[in-house]
Write a structure and sequence with these properties.
- The chain is an alpha/beta fold.
- The protein has 2 domains: 223 residues, Rossmann fold (3-Layer(aba) Sandwich); 66 residues, Alpha-Beta Plaits (2-Layer Sandwich), CATH 3.30.70.100.
- Helices cover 35% and strands 29% of the residues.
- The protein has a 6-stranded mixed sheet with strand order 6-7-8-3-9-10, with helices on both faces. A 4-stranded antiparallel sheet has the order 2-1-4-5, covered by helices on one side.
- The two termini are 33 Å apart.
Length: 313
């Protein structure tokens, strides 16, 4: 398993406060890994250690196979980083800011001329690159921040709360941007306390609380391990007893309850098995009026972990 990020026993203190407590974290390459936790959980502190802005007080940190300890510029050459609520000089134009960052990365003029227009188009700022940043909306500034994080053609992109403070339209735009970044073969490490956003884009998640990792796995595995069975609720045009009998024989079905035209199907899997269920119901002579998937949300899983953690203290 190739890792983009690995921490072993990572610890960071601020005086008597332990912000990150012996954190073991593994982020596989070519994934969108959500770093999830409430405000004050230690997410931003961890990220600042990863990008060399803070020195750890204990443990080992590796980014793209290179050990990181404090400000080591070489370790950041293939890492793109957008901090929480990026603040850019309002007197600069969008393209000027990217050109300035490109110079700091050591990019040649030719490289900047080629890369900047591509990034502006990718983040939806083509045509607005000559506007002053002070005239940009919050969503536009977030997208500009993502563009600067991609300037150095990074293998790993670290985004700290990229949807924070955005309206629903801005959240959708950023969500699609993150997906497109991953499609280019990059690893995305995305910190957020917005559970729904993480659920929409991430393949893997780590849940952190008070500096401690409570769970870290694929999204589906965490659901399966913690959240219990999912169910399908099916409404038929008319009740047919044989439909329930047929469904009970399916290997991924653990139980079926029937009440008139309604079927409640308990599943052994969190995979989307609605096509197979629909097919079997139709074969048995049933006509489906509606079908809804009832699974526990990431919010419920998150709250269960937080509650269990509190009970162990």
């Amino acid at each position: 398993m190739a890792l983009a990020i690995e921490t072993i026993g990572l610890t960071k203190r601020y005086g008597s406060l332990v912000a990150v407590n012996k954190l073991n974290l593994q982020v596989e390459k070519n994934t969108i890994h959500g770093f999830l936790g409430p405000n004050g959980a230690g997410k931003t502190t961890t990220i600042k250690v990863l990008v060399g802005l803070l020195r750890p007080d204990g443990g080992t940190v590796r980014v793209l196979g290179r050990e990181v300890y404090g400000d080591v510029p070489e370790s950041r050459l293939k890492v793109g980083y957008m901090p929480e609520l990026p603040r850019f000089p309002k007197h600069l134009k969008g393209w000027e800011l990217l050109d300035l960052y490109g110079r700091m990365y050591g990019m040649t003029e030719q490289q900047r001329r080629e890369q900047i227009p591509k990034l502006l188009e990718m983040v939806g700022l083509k045509g607005r690159e000559k506007d002053f940043i002070g005239k940009y909306s919050k969503g536009m500034q977030q997208r500009l921040g993502i563009a600067q994080a991609l300037l150095n053609d990074p293998e790993l992109v670290i985004l700290d709360e990229p949807s924070l403070g955005l309206d629903p339209v801005g959240m959708v735009e950023v969500r699609e941007l993150v997906k497109n970044i991953a499609k280019e073969g990059r690893t995305v490490f995305l910190s957020s306390h917005l559970l729904f956003e993480v659920e929409q884009v991430c393949t893997h998640i780590t849940i952190i609380h008070k500096g401690v990792a409570l769970a870290s796995d694929t999204l589906q595995n965490i659901y399966s391990r913690i959240s219990g069975a999912a169910t399908l609720v099916v409404e038929l045009a008319k009740p047919i007893d044989s439909v329930a009998d047929v469904l009970r024989k399916l290997p991924f079905v653990s139980g079926v309850e029937q009440g008139g035209r309604m079927l409640v199907i308990e599943l052994k899997t969190h995979d989307d098995v609605r096509p197979q269920i629909s097919q079997e119901i139709t074969r048995a002579g049933g006509v489906i009026v509606s079908m809804s998937f009832k699974g526990r949300t990431l919010e419920e899983v998150f709250m269960q972990l937080i509650t269990e953690f509190g009970g162990q203290k």
